[in-house]
C-alpha cells in the first residue's frame, strides 16, 4: 500500500494545524455572514495561511511570522468585517471554488500536481468557500409590518377567506382559520372611515396573527360588520376580509326570507 502523494512534504502535525486554522477562519466568515457582514481585512487570512504553508516548503522561517501576523490581522483588526448593503454575489466565488476542486482532484492524478498547483488549489478552495458563504448564509430580511398605507391600496378579496368572525356583546371575535400566520395591518367597522390596529388581550398592537389565534375587535351593538386588511405572506398583495351582520340592537326587527 503506497502513501498518498504529498508534493509539499508537510509533516502530519503541521498539516493538521493548518487545517484547523483554515476551518476556524471559514467558520468565522460564516458566523459573520449570518449577521450580515462580509470579509474585508479578514481576506488577509488567505495569504496568511498560504505563507504558513510555504514556511517549511521554502525553508524560510520568517514566512511563519509574516503569515501569523496576517492571521492575527484578519481576526482582530476593527474593520476585518463590514456590513454589506445587499446579499453578496456568488458567481466569482463559485468559479474559484470549482477551479480549486479541479486542481485538488489533480493531486491524486497519475501525474501529481507541482507545489505551485497544490498551493493554487488550496487558495482557490479557501477563497471560493469564503466568498460563497456570505451568499448562502445571508440573513433573511425581517418582514416589514403592514402599515396605514395598506388601507388605500387595491386589496384582494379571496374566494375562501383566511379569517372568520363571531359576534358577542363584547364585540367581534376575529379568528385566523388558515393553516399559516397572517400579517395584519388594521381594521375598521363597516360603513365607517376609520383605522384601528388589531390588538391582543394585553392591549399591544399585533403585526402577526398565528394560525388559530383569536383576537377581539371592540364594537358596540350598533355595528353591522368589520373590514380587516391583512396579507398571507410578506410579499403578497394586501387582502381584505369583509364580514357583515345584523346589528344586535336591531336583531328583533330582522326579517328572514
Automatic annotation (TrEMBL):
Keywords: Membrane, Transmembrane, Transmembrane helix. The chain crosses the membrane at residues 12-29, 89-110, 116-138. This is Uncharacterized protein.
Amino acid at each position: 500500500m503506497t502513501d498518498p502523494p504529498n508534493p509539499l512534504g508537510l509533516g502530519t502535525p503541521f498539516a493538521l494545524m493548518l487545517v484547523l486554522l483554515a476551518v476556524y477562519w471559514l467558520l468565522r466568515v460564516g458566523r459573520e455572514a449570518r449577521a450580515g457582514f462580509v470579509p474585508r481585512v479578514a481576506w488577509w487570512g488567505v495569504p496568511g495561511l498560504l505563507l504558513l504553508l510555504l514556511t517549511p516548503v521554502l525553508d524560510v522561517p520568517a514566512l511563519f511570522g509574516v503569515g501569523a501576523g496576517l492571521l492575527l490581522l484578519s481576526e482582530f483588526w476593527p474593520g476585518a468585517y463590514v456590513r454589506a448593503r445587499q446579499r453578496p454575489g456568488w458567481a466569482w466565488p463559485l468559479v474559484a471554488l470549482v477551479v480549486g476542486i479541479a486542481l485538488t482532484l489533480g493531486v491524486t492524478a497519475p501525474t501529481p500536481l507541482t507545489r505551485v498547483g497544490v498551493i493554487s488549489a488550496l487558495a482557490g478552495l479557501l477563497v471560493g468557500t469564503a466568498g460563497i458563504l456570505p451568499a448562502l448564509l445571508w440573513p433573511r430580511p425581517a418582514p416589514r409590518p403592514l402599515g396605514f398605507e395598506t388601507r388605500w391600496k387595491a386589496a384582494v378579496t379571496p374566494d375562501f377567506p383566511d379569517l372568520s368572525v363571531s359576534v358577542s356583546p363584547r364585540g367581534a371575535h376575529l379568528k385566523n382559520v388558515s393553516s399559516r400566520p397572517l400579517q395584519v395591518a388594521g381594521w375598521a367597522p363597516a360603513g365607517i372611515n376609520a383605522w384601528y390596529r388589531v390588538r391582543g388581550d394585553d392591549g399591544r398592537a399585533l403585526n402577526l396573527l398565528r394560525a388559530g389565534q383569536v383576537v377581539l375587535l371592540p364594537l358596540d351593538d350598533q355595528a353591522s360588520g368589520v373590514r380587516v386588511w391583512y396579507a398571507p405572506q410578506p410579499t403578497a398583495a394586501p387582502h381584505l376580509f369583509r364580514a357583515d351582520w345584523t346589528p344586535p340592537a336591531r336583531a328583533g326587527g330582522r326579517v328572514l326570507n
